[in-house]
UniProtKB/TrEMBL annotation:
Residues 17-243 form the Orotidine 5'-phosphate decarboxylase domain. Keywords: Decarboxylase, Lyase, Pyrimidine biosynthesis. The keyword Mitochondrion does not apply. It is an enzyme of class 4 (lyase). It comes from the Bacteria. It catalyses: orotidine 5'-phosphate + H(+) = UMP + CO2. GO terms for biological process: 'de novo' pyrimidine nucleobase biosynthetic process; 'de novo' UMP biosynthetic process. Belongs to the OMP decarboxylase family. Type 2 subfamily. GO terms for molecular function: orotidine-5'-phosphate decarboxylase activity. This is Orotidine-5'-phosphate decarboxylase. Pathway: Pyrimidine metabolism; UMP biosynthesis via de novo pathway; UMP from orotate: step 2/2.
Length: 259
C-alpha cells in the first residue's frame, strides 16, 4: 500500500485530520520524565490522530539520551497511525542516502520532511521506498517564508512552485511526495499547490486559521499538525481531550465528522 493510501485510510477510519506533534520540552522533572510523558500523550491521543509527528530537534536537544528516547518511542508507536518524522534534512545525494536509510530502514518511520533547497538529486535517494512518503518544505509557517518561498520570479511563478515542480517530477515513483504548507501562510498559496498530501503546521500556538484551507476543497489526505496545543496548553484538559477537540475543530471547518 502506498503511503498516501495508508494516510487516507487512517483519515477515513478516524474522521480526523489531526497530526499530533511530539515535541517534548523537559521540565522541572528533567529528561528522565520525558519517556513517560510521551507514552501518556501517545496512549491518550492516538484514537484521535491521523498521524504523529515527532520533531527530531527536540530529541537531539537532549543529546544521546534524547535519541534513545526517540528510538524507543518510534518502536512503541501504535501501528495504525502513520509517523511523520520532522527532520527537514538537506544535503548532497550521497549523504542523503544515509539519511534515507536512517529514517526509513532503521527507524522505520512512514514519512519524513525534507528541505528541497539542494535540488532534485538531493531528494532522489528518498524516492525509491515503497510505502513511504516525503514532505518537501514549500511554504513554511514562519514569517521568513516571505524571504524566499513566496517571492515571485520574472515569469510570474512563486519560488514555492519550483518546489512543487520538483515534487511533480517524482510522480509514479514508489515514494509519495507531499508538501509542507504553513496554515499561517495559506493566502494565495493553496490554489497553486498540487493535490498531493500536505502537512500543515501552524494551528494552535502559531494562530493559523482553518477557513482558507477548508474552503480550498482539496481531496488529498492533508493533515494539520498541532504540537504545543496538545502537549502544553494550560487549559485543564487532558492530552486526549485536547486532541479530540482539535480533531473536531478541524472536521467542523471541513464539514466532516469525527468517528
Ligand atoms: O513550516 C513549518 C514546518 C514545521 N513546523 C514544525 O511543526 C511543529 C509546530 O509546533 P506548534 O507547537 O504546534 O507550533 C514544530 O515541530 C515545528 O518545528 C512548523 O511549525 N512550521
Amino acid at each position: 500500500m502506498r503511503y498516501s493510501e495508508r494516510l487516507q485510510a487512517r483519515i477515513e477510519t478516524t474522521g480526523s485530520r489531526l497530526c499530533v506533534g511530539l515535541d517534548p520540552r523537559p521540565g522541572a522533572d528533567g529528561i528522565e520524565a520525558v519517556p513517560d510523558f510521551l507514552k501518556r500523550v501517545v496512549d491518550e491521543t492516538w484514537e484521535h490522530a491521523a498521524a504523529f509527528k515527532p520533531n527530531i530537534a527536540y530529541f537531539e536537544a537532549m543529546g544521546l539520551r534524547g535519541l534513545h528516547i526517540m528510538e524507543d518511542l518510534l518502536g512503541e508507536m501504535p501501528k495504525e497511525v502513520p509517523v511523520i518524522l520532522d527532520a527537514k534534512r538537506s544535503d548532497i545525494g550521497e549523504t542523503q542516502k544515509y539519511y534515507a536509510h536512517s529514517y526509513f530502514a532503521h527507524w522505520k518511520v512512514d514519512a519524513v520532511t525534507l528541505n528541497p533547497f539542494l535540488g532534485y538529486d538531493s531528494i532522489e535517494p528518498f524516492l525509491n521506498w515503497e510505502g513511504k512518503g516525503i514532505y518537501l518544505l514549500a511554504v513554511t509557517s514562519n514569517p521568513g517564508s516571505a524571504d524566499f518561498q513566496r517571492q515571485t520570479l520574472a515569469d510570474g511563478r512563486s519560488i514555492f512552485e519550483l518546489v512543487t515542480a520538483l515534487g511533480e517530477r517524482a510522480k509514479g515513483l514508489p515514494t509519495d511526495v507531499g508538501y509542507v504548507v504553513g496554515l499561517t501562510n495559506t493566502a494565495g498559496v493553496l490554489p497553486k499547490i498540487p493535490d498531493a498530501p500536505l502537512l500543515i503546521p501552524g494551528l494552535g500556538a502559531q494562530g493559523g486559521d482553518l477557513a482558507e484551507l477548508a474552503a480550498a476543497g482539496r481531496s488529498a489526505p492533508d493533515v494539520i499538525n498541532v504540537s504545543r496545543g496538545v502537549l502544553y496548553a494550560d487549559d485543564g484538559f487532558s492530552f486526549g481531550e485536547r486532541a479530540k477537540r482539535w480533531a473536531e475543530r478541524i472536521a467542523t471547518s471541513y464539514h466532516e465528522s469525527v468517528a
